[in-house]
Amino acid sequence: MGAVWLETLAGNLIASEQIQKIHVGTRNDTRRLFVNLVGNPMREEVADFATRFQHAEKLGPDALKRAQESEAKAARAELVVALDDARRIADTLNAPHAVSYDHGAGRWRITNLVKNAGVTRAADEG
């Protein structure tokens, strides 16, 4: 059975089995997506959407915060799907795979860690 890993914003790979909760930050962190790990109270930051709307000059501060929170919530739902897809692919190929967020493309990327090839299945942008 192939293992599935999640790449954090710091570049750390964590086993998907260690993920207890995937959530959007609170207060000033609403643009960020975090995971809590089983047996570890520390939060690992997975994605940050601060620059996504940075040049949206027509948005006021409150509207910008709501837009970033909405984007992070959508990414949370897409991450759950990407992890399930990665599990299926890893089991089929019997090779470890990693899920990471591609900020440039605005979607999750699934990568075969053995081949380190572009084996990807990405969620389309909304």
TrEMBL record:
This is Uncharacterized protein. The lineage of its organism: Bacteria, Bacillati, Actinomycetota, Actinomycetes, Micrococcales.
